[in-house]
Amino acid sequence: MNRVRAKLPEFCRTPAGVRVRARSPCTTYKKTGSIKSSDSDSKCSSMEMSFNTFQSNPDSEMSDNNSNNNNRVMVVVDPSLDANCALQWALSHTIQSQDTIVLLYVSKISKEGEKVNSEINQRAYELLCSMKNMCQTRKPGVQVEIVMQEGKEKGPVIVENAKQHKVSLLVLGQRKRSIMWRLLRICWRKKSRSRVVEYCIQNANCMTIAVRRKSSKYGGYLITTKRHKNFWLLA
């Protein structure tokens, strides 16, 4: 008797094992920083890490003085909008309620006599008191110290006071200058705020940050440190 063999459909005659090419899942990375610059991403990461962790990992020479994790932050103030911007940035980005703010006002010694110097010091003291009240309102519980100094060279005075008060962070305001102003400064050889800021960044024994508001259109701040210049911080 002949055996009848059923003809299977074509799809049943394919090998039982099917080889599947699986793609590895895409790894998504969440942006943790908001600093934009033309440098590589690794530099941005190191900038963000050092900026965000300076409070928890201060320099070794500061550790003994800040053993209770309370940081001392010095902000250089004056009547300008740049200094006010620096203070506002420090309050919103670096100051915690258990920290201490040192407000430093540095004035040049006037050659016009004691009366003029006395008037300048009085206005400076009133400004410091006003900023102290503002700090205590914005950050209840924060300790605020006010310091007034005089000197011919503003940069060295700031650096020396930062060292004496054992601060872990120094914050200064920075102003954008036009090309014409820069050319005039070179011709006149006058010292400017930008040179004071650069001197402090290069010579201070603590982390030093210069802050400038980006613009009303784009928002954020431009941050300058010893290793990074004009990083755009979107916050």
Short description:
The chain is of the alpha/beta class and 235 residues long. The chain contains 7 helices and 8 strands, in the order βααβαβαβαβααβββ.
Notes on the structure:
It is a single chain. Mean pLDDT is 73; it is low at 11-67. The protein has helices at 41-53, 60-63, 81-93, 114-138, 154-164, 179-188, 193-203; strands spanning 35-36, 72-76, 100-107, 143-150, 169-173, 207-213, 221-224, 231-233. The chain is built from seven helices and eight strands. The chain has 235 residues and is α/β, with parallel strands linked by helices. The longest helix has 25 residues, at 114-138. It has one domain (34-61, 71-233): Rossmann fold. A hairpin with a 6-residue loop joins strand 7 (221-224) and strand 8. It starts with 34 loop residues before the first strand and ends with a strand. Strands 1-8-7-6-5-2-3-4 form an eight-stranded mixed sheet, sandwiched between helices. This is UspA domain-containing protein.
